[in-house]
Amino acid sequence: MMPKMIKILLADDHGVLRAGLRALLDAEPDLQVVGEAETGEEAIKKVKELSPDIVVMDLSMPGMGGMEATRRIAAMDQATKVLVLTMHAEEEFLLPVLDSGGSGFVRKTSADEDLTHAIRTVARDEVFLYPSAAKLLLERYKDADADEMRGPLSKLTERERDVLAMTAEGFSSSEIGEKLFISPKTVDTYRSRIMDKLQLRHRSELVRFALQTGLLRAED
Question: If residue 180 lies in a helix (H) or strand (E), which one and from where to where?
Answer without folding.
Answer: helix 173-180
